[in-house]
Amino acid sequence: MWMRNRTSSSDFILLGLLVRSKATGFVFTVIFAIFVVAVMANLIMIFLIQVDSRLHTPMYFLLSQLSIMDSLFICNTVPKLLVDMVSKEKTISFVGCGIQIFLYLTMIGSEFFLLGLMAYDRYVAVCNPLRYPVLMNRKVCLLLAAGAWFGGSLDGFLLTPITMNVPYCSSRRINHFFCEIPAVLRLACADTSLYEALMYVCCVLMLLIPVSIISTSYSLILLAVHCMRSVEGRKKALTTCSSHLPVVSIFYGAAFYTYVLPQSFHTPEKDKVVSAFYTMVTPMLNPLIYSLRNKDVIGAFKRIFTRCSLSQKVVTSNA
Description:
This protein is mainly alpha-helical and 319 residues long. The protein has helices at 24-51, 58-85, 94-127, 132-135, 138-164, 181-185, 193-227, 231-242, 244-259, 268-292, 295-318; strands spanning 12-14, 91-92, 173-174. Residues 1-8 have low confidence and may be disordered. The protein has a three-stranded mixed β-sheet. Helix 2 (58-85) runs antiparallel to helix 3 (94-127), helix 2 packs across helix 10 (268-292) and helix 7 runs antiparallel to helix 8 (231-242). The chain is globular and about 65 Å long. It contains eleven helices and three strands; from the N terminus they run E-H-H-E-H-H-H-E-H-H-H-H-H-H.
């Protein structure tokens, strides 16, 4: 069905992050470095959570899901951008564009819901610590993670076919570095106001539901912290939640700009900067924020490193 309006010249041309710039080499180096750091940091986070039994808790299980989403998110857009920056051919096929849109929508939608569920997890941990093992048992965690993935994929399955069946004009030049829906729709020959209204409603709902969960959870957490008599208890509760808030603010702020603000606030240059921020910088920052400010993760890394060092010494001595 998505192939309905594909012709022999149906490929799109991605103009890229920098349409005309002498700093392409420098920007390429920066983006490549961000990509490597983001992928390595997320893979290390997933590895630590899997192999260290002390991290086998609901919070770290959800965090491992976030790392998986961030890895897929950045791998969906950045490799193509890097190739385009060093290649004269900057085309992307009609099917490739559709796949990119679907994966992008699925990852961003799943992360919307997951960040809300992570806030709920912190609420249960702080406000109901005695019931926490029951309320957030393994089965519940699996269902919550599956729900986040399902919610994100639902957005992808709904909006991708509609986007790819819009009739497009002869100009196939997308003023962006990947197939983001607002940029693609600028090439449409037909009136897309109804579809844009539908997309607006979907995005508002996908923002409103998790933001409501986050706001409610943290309001109850702050109330519980205020009622605590122990200074150590307050400090521990606030430390537990402090890593989550910067991630939420960055991610939802960028999404709000892209999909909720009226078009009068948008320009292609601003859109590309904001998109670069949450498709590249956010996946890199998330594991760094959660690891550098988290004693459990740092402890797990030290234990794994020590174990590997001892194993290497044993192998060397036996040789």
